[in-house]
Amino acid sequence: MGQKILAFVKLTRPWFLGGGVILYLLGAVMAQVQGFTLQVERLLLGQLLVTSIQLATHYSNEYYDYAVDAAIGSARTPFSGGSGILVSGQLERVVARHATYVCLGLAGLAWVICGLLSPLMWIIGLLAMWGGYFYSAPPLKLEGSGWGELVTALLTAVLVPLTGYIMQTNQIDPLVLISCLPLIPIYLAMVLTFELPDFPADRAFGKKTITVRVGVLRAAWLHNLLLIGGWVGMAITMAFLPPRLSGQLVWLALPLGLWQIAGVVWRSRRGWRSYTLLAGGAVALAGLIPLLWLIDLLS
C-alpha cells in the first residue's frame, strides 16, 4: 500500500501545483492592494477550483498521453514526458482516469459555489475546465493541435490570477489583465522547453505541437524570442501600472531569464543532449517572476 501511495504522489508531480498557488495569490493580493478586504473563505474556495482543475488536467494528460509517454523513454525529464509511473507499471492506467474524474467532480462543485458567489466565475471556471480537460482528451486534444501551447499559457498566466482577483472583488479590472500579459510569452517559452525532449515521440505519433511543426532549432530560437518579448512587455507594463501594483522585484529574476536564453544558444551550437536543466530553469523562472511580484505587493 505504501508503495502505491508513493507512486500516486509521483504520478501527481506536486511541484507543478506551486505555480498555480502563487499566481492565484498574486491576483488575490492585487485586489487587497486596491483596497478590497481579503476574504479567506473565498480565497480557499477559489484555490480549490484552481488546484482541482490543475490536477484534472495533469491526470488526464497522464491517461491520454500514455502511448507517447511510453515512447519517450530515457528522454523523460522531471518536467516533461509524463511521470513515467503508468508506463513503468507502478500503477494501472485506469488510476489516472479515475483521478481525473474525481478532480473534475471537485472542480465542478467548487465552480458552482464560486459562480454563486461571483457570477463572472461561471465563465472563467467553465473556460478553465474546458481547456484543462480537452488539453489532452479527445475529441479536441489541444496539446497536439498546435493550439495547446497558447491555451496552456492563457489558462495559467491569465485565468489563474484573474480567478484570485475576481473571487475577492466580483469584477474584472483592465489593469489586472494588462499585468498578466507579459507572463503569457514567458509561459509559452516554458511549454516549449517541455516539448523539446518529447520531439521524436510527438512526431512519431503525429502530434502537431509547435516544436514538431517548426523543428527543434526554430522552436529553440522561438523560445528565446518569447522570453525577450516577455521581459520587454514586463518593462512596458511596469512603467504604466500604478505604483501600488508595480512589482519591481521581478527584475531579480532577469539573470535567470538570461541564463535560459544563453542555455538555448549554447545547446544550439553544441548539441541537444540533456534537457532537464533547461526545463527546470523554465519552471523556476515561471514561478519566480509571480513570486517576486507577490512579495513586492505584500511588502
Provide an overview of this structure.
The protein is mostly helical. It has one domain (about 1-299). Helix content is about 75%, strand content about 0%. The chain contains 13 helices and no strands. Helix 3 (about 40-65) runs antiparallel to helix 5 (about 95-115), helix 7 runs antiparallel to helix 9 (about 185-205) and helix 12 runs antiparallel to helix 13 (about 275-299). The longest helix is centred in the first third of the chain and has 25 residues, at about 40-65. The termini are far apart.
How do you describe this structure in short?
The chain has 299 residues and is an all-alpha fold.
List strands and helices in order, with pairings.
Layout: H1 2-12, H2 17-33, H3 40-64, H4 66-72, H5 93-117, H6 120-133, H7 148-169, H8 174-180, H9 183-204, H10 210-214, H11 216-240, H12 254-270, H13 276-298
Helix pairs in contact: 2-3, 2-7, 2-13, 3-5, 3-6, 3-7, 4-9, 5-6, 6-7, 7-9, 9-11, 9-13, 11-12, 12-13
Helix content: over 70%
Number of domains: 1
Secondary-structure-based class equals mainly alpha
Largest sheet, in brief, is:
none
Total number of beta strands: 0
End-to-end Cα distance: 45 Å
* Helix/strand order: HHHHHHHHHHHHH
| Low-confidence spans | none
Rg computed from alpha carbons, rounded to a whole number of angstroms: 19 Å
Annotation field: number of helices: 13
Relative strand content: under 5%
